[in-house]
Amino acid sequence: MKSIIGSDESLTLRIKSELSAICDGSKLLPQLFAAMQRHDIESLKLTYDSRPVRLGDLFEVIGDPSPNLVLEGDCSRIVQIGERMDRGTILVRGPAGTGLASNMQGGSVEVLGNCGDHLACNMRDGFVFVHGSAGDHVAGPAPGRQTGMRGGDCIVLGDVGDRAAERLRRGTLFVGGNAGDYGAAQIIAGTVIVLGEIGSHWAQGMKRGSIILSRPTNGAFSAELTTAREYELSFLPLIWRHLERLLGDNTIKLPSSRWATRQLGDRANQGLGEVLTLTRHSYS
Question: Within a domain: residue 22?
Answer without folding.
Answer: no
